[in-house]
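Chapter review: from sequence to fold.
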Amino acid sequence: MAISEPEIPDTAQHYLVCDNEDCNKNCLFYCNLCHRSMCEQCREEHLKSPESKNHEVVPYKERKRKLPVEKCKIHPSKELDILCKECNAYLCSKCCTLQDHKGHTFVDLEAIYSENWGKCKQKILNIRQYFLPASQSLQEEIKDNAKEIKSIFDLIRTSIKSESMTSKCMLEVTSENIDQVDKLEESLLELLESQNKIYTDYISYLNSLIKDFHGYLSFTKIQNNPLISYNSIAEALKIKSIPETTRPVMPEFTVGKFSKYDVGNLLIKINAPGIKPEIRSIKSLEAFTREFKMKGYNCNLKRTLVVNKVREYELPYRYRKTWWHISVCKPGIFFVSDRIGNFFQIKWKENKLFMLPPCPGLGFHTVTKNGDLYFTDGEKHVINMKKQDKQITEFIKTENWKPLSIYSSNINGDLLVGMWKKKESKVIRFNKKGTEIQSISKDNKGRKLYEYPCYITENINGDICVSDPEQSAVIVVTASGQFRFSYRGDQKSKFSPRGLCTDVLGHILVCDTVKETVHLLDEDGRFLSLLLESQGLC
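The token string follows.
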């Protein structure tokens, strides 16, 4: 039984934009043949047109996923979009006419990809909403068992010590009892520790599986694509069962009773009951889903969520400006900057503030997983690098292009850079050596994507997310540069996006400087809620 995603009402004011030129209405439908999202009016016009009246137009949530673009090596002008079942080979439409494949059975690759893409997404949802919570619940039960064991054994020790005070002659027996208690407690706690490790390893496996599945979703090739291969998809999307563990059998003890005929009854007796440990109950996916729905988790999300302040850092008074960008190096160490050029490194625990060379801009700095700092200099048209505790060096010259924004990929370490030149804008991907390996500037219809890409980040599925205040929009493309969607806030008020980031669930968080709030979107650009309303944000 599959867990369903929380429904997001299509009637919400915040929306995805129709793909048709000069139409900024809410996209509700999707043409599976043209791979275009469209509003209700454009859908009606699309189905009335003689060229597209027979196209399959479905609600946006039921759309087919577009197949990764890969050219045929035999016919370079054609794309691979067919699978020959007999040869297990990927073909283009011309390859199907070759004698080698005469009489063979052909399957639409896009249909296979879309179906398996949905299965992969469902597996990710199952992991997040069932396997992870269920495993974490078992871990919490183990912790509670450990607390209960410690409490019981503390009580036993107290009783034994109390008896020893009034039974000096039985000191030796008491000492043996204490040793017995310690060994029994140690064995039970070791059992629980081993069980806790089992679930820690399993949760680590689930998180790794989520990353693998997201890797499948962002795979940009046809060859060896796990969502297309008939032979490997079942194994690729397999999730190991939640491990079974047993509950500890708690010790029983009796308080000693004084008797001149039976000295043994003066002291506590302790023993481990010969009871078979009870296997911890693991709710089935079906039961968990029913409980999930009964608790109301499938209801529409609230428009505004409460966010709790965890920490706060105040800069010295003379530096209290409006901060426009933050890059986190590691817990307690981060970089902040304002628009006029103040640029600082802050070491929270040491309460130290380090001023860096002035560098005016918006989302102009980023930190790698290794802690190296990269930042753009729009005036000199360069990208600088600062290794930890080392001098600043020039890393990349951008010639006559002004670098505006930069982000270091957590997936592969590439640098994503938003650039601007007069009326042109683009996003460039550089590898770790500073070599340009990708340029993104237009969608598949030849229309330019960006006006002023001032902030940039990357989602866990490889999507590149850009904040473009000149268009009052967030523009999202795939890792291969194919346009996915644009988000423009609601229709009734202005939307001015600035800083943006993503989280481990693939949510996109966008700062809106008009409403001074944060828009929370899912990875497909659907509005979920507002955070931190009426607060100054960067």
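Two observations follow directly from the output. Residues 3-13, 296-304 have pLDDT under 50 and may be disordered. The helical segments are 40-48, 109-166, 171-217, 233-236, 285-294.
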